[in-house]
Every structure is written in C-alpha cells, then in structure tokens.
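ok, trying the design again with the full structure, not the truncated one.
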C-alpha cells in the first residue's frame, strides 16, 4: 500500500522570460526520415544516439514504432495490428511503447534482443508503456474501467502504484533509482497534480497556482520537469522541481510552455509559445531559455516544433516540419570554434568522414597556425579507444585515418564514438558512427 504525503508549499522562484533568450551552442540537424510514409516523430533517445518514435509506413495512414541509429530507421512492427509507437529507449537499446493486436487492442511492449514482449495488463484492457530505466523497470498506465491507473512492471510482474487518493494516475518516467513521476488525482477528484512515487510513498508536487500539473521526467539526481497551470488558469508554464520546490521555467514570451525531458546535467527540453502563439522546440540551460530554431543553420528549411528528449551528450530528439512534412530529427552539438582573445590558434574541426563509416573513417581538421595537437577516440561510455595523434602540426588542413582498430590492435566494434581534438589546451569533440 502506498502511503500519501503532501509536498511542502510550492514556491515560485527563478522565472525566465523571452528577454532571457541568448545565442548558445549550435547544433547539426539530422533528418531521421520515415518508414516510407510522409510523417514521423521522435519520442526518446539514449546515450548511444539511438532514437525511437513513430512513423507513417509506405502507402498507408498507419504509424509504426521505429528505432533509428547509424544504419537508418527500422520498423519495430506491431502485435498483428495496424499501429504502434516507440515511447522510450534505455542505454542497453531496449525499447518500450504500445502496439495494436489483430483485434485492435492496445498492448504495452518491451523490445529486447530483437523480441517484442507483451507486458500484459492488470485489468485486461488497453495499456501504454511510457518509459523504462536501465534495469528494465517499465512504467506507464492501464485502463481500469472508466479510469486510468499508473503501473510499474518489473521481472514479468505489473503493479498498480496508486494515486493521491483520487481515481486516476499516470506514470511518465522512471530513473535508475526506481523513482517514478507522472500525475495523479487527489482525493477531492477535481484537480490533477504532478506526483513522485519513491520508496512506497506518493508525493504531491503541487502546482504554481492552477488546478493541474504533470511531471514528465526525472533524472538520476532527482530533478523533475513538467508542466503546471498557473493562476489565472489560461497560463501554463514548464517547471523544474528540486529540493521540495517547484520553479517556473518561463516561456518564449507566450502563455504556454512544457518541459518533457531533463539530462543528468540539468538541461531540459520541451516546447514553448512565442508572443504570436507559435509553438517552438525549446531548450532550458543554465538559467536561459533558447529557441532551438535559432541554434541550427539558418536557411535550413526546418521549423522545429517539439523537443522530446535530451541525452547526457547534449543530443536532442524531436520533430519539426521540413518541405511540408513532419519529420523526426536528431540535433548533435557542434564544437565551439573560436580565436581566443589576445591571440591563439584558430581552427576548424570537421570531424569524421564518411560518417557513418564502414569499418574505417578519416578525421579532418584545419589550423590557421602551427599548434600542438592531440586527437583521441573514445567509445560512448567514455573509455579511451585509441590516440591517433599527439604531436605538432603545421598550419593548414590535416586528415588522420582510423582503420577501426583500438590501441591494442583489436578491432573496435560497431557503434557510436567520440573524437576529441585538443589544440593548445582547448578541447573540441565530434560524434561519429562506425558500422560493421
């Protein structure tokens, strides 16, 4: 039985507005494409840069769950029905979401080692899996008569985790400590509040004055992000919750914002409206709110509508419009290229080409003046794979080949890698993919 306690009084602090918008890290955008249809959207990504979501399939209005990686977009299929959606992916590449059966019922699934497992139900009715952690604890919601209830699934067992005393609840996210966030209805049955399930206790996170709030994500440090209505109830803002306090994250000048994901470092992504009520994919970082459209190459043709997730490398997944269609995207941070004040070495680090590379690739950089250079390769877990160079280079373009072998001569496996370039004490990094 879950024991209920009410969170301390909600405090309104640290509010940001459109006046805080500044230029920041720029991103390279990758169109993840579709499964043959016109539209797709990204829901989640992991630290390997693998993305899951949904896409229209060829010659159909149906949507199927997908996983996208260096090898392209792959259809995850269904349980025999027309539709499915991939909701979340963990560091092991395991995926959860929902899929229809041949009779049209919606069932939660866990995809692991190529096998899609039906997670069952507590009431034999529709189930949606929203998230999972690295221990394959899965959270989501199922229908219980006229109501919706939050669950945790682990080791083949699904458990109802209760409410705030009312009828309804839904779980959106779970961290690696097993803490779960979502929303639940309090005892009076009118309001819906963001809540935290931790150690058998359900905590009401409150609101910023309105009647409703949702908690969408929690990181391993216990920071929570989501959405809350304010007073008056026409205003809804993204929030961060930490140390029993709910902070207003502000908007891009409009009435609405929502934060859907938070990295371990505390960067959050979501959406916000501008003063003209246009919705934009949004990044909150270090006390600043930034419109992601302004952080990609101008004239790209993209309009970024939703930022759904951010990983611990700062990569962001979501969806936007391009050439009239809605497509899933992946944003990868670009290195900051600069000439230090008072002099120094100007450089350009173009990264790997081809990317992805089939068993090998070449790293390219350009120096304006001679400099001491160290170029090191790391796997996605941060382990050093090989140092390609540690010496002085002359001015001009340089290219270093990597044959796909580690420092001990063994063949490096396919996957995501990072190339770190150190030039006169400054560091720059670029991500690339090695195929078989």
């Amino acid at each position: 039985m879950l024991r209920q306690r009410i969170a301390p009084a909600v405090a309104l602090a640290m509010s940001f507005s459109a006046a805080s918008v500044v230029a920041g890290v720029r991103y390279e955008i990758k169109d993840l494409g579709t499964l043959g249809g016109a539209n797709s959207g990204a829901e989640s990504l992991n630290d390997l840069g693998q993305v899951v979501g949904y896409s229209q399939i060829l010659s159909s209005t149906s949507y199927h769950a997908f996983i996208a990686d260096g090898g392209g977009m792959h259809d995850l299929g269904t349980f025999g029905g027309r539709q499915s959606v991939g909701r979340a992916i963990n560091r092991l590449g395991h995926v959860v979401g929902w899929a229809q059966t041949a009779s049209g019922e919606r069932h939660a699934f866990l995809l692991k080692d190529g096998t899609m497992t039906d997670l069952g139900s507590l009431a034999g009715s529709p189930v949606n899996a929203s998230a999972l952690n690295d221990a394959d604890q899965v959270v989501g919601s199922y229908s219980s008569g006229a109501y919706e209830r939050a669950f945790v699934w682990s080791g083949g067992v699904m458990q109802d985790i209760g409410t705030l005393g009312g009828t309804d609840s839904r779980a959106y996210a779970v961290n690696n400590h097993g803490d779960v966030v979502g929303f639940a209805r309090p005892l009076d049955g009118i309001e819906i509040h963001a809540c935290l399930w931790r150690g058998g206790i359900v905590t009401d996170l409150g609101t910023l004055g309105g009647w409703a709030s949702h908690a969408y994500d929690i990181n391993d440090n216990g920071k929570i992000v989501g959405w809350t209505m304010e007073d008056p109830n026409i205003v809804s803002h993204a929030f961060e919750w930490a140390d029993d306090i709910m902070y207003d994250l502000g908007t891009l000048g409009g009435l609405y914002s929502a934060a859907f994901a938070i990295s371990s470092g505390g960067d959050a992504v979501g959406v916000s409206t501008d003063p003209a009520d246009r919705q934009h994919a949004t990044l909150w970082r270090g006390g600043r709110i930034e419109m992601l459209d302004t952080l990609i190459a101008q004239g790209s043709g993209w309009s970024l509508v939703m930022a759904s997730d951010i990983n611990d490398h700062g990569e962001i997944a979501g969806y936007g419009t391009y050439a009239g269609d809605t497509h899933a995207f992946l944003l990868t941070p670009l290195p900051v290229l600069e000439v230090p004040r008072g002099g120094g070495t100007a450089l350009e680090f173009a990264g790997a080409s081809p990317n992805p590379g089939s068993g090998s690739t070449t790293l390219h950089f350009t120096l304006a003046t001679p400099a001491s250079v160290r170029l090191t390769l790391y796997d996605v877990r941060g382990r050093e794979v090989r140092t390609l160079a540690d010496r002085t280079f002359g001015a001009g373009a340089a290219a270093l080949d990597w044959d796909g072998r580690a420092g001990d001569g063994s063949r490096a496996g396919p996957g995501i890698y990072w190339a770190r370039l150190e030039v006169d004490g400054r560091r720059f990094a670029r991500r690339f993919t090695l195929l078989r």
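Keeping the full-length input from now on. The chain has no helices and 37 strands.
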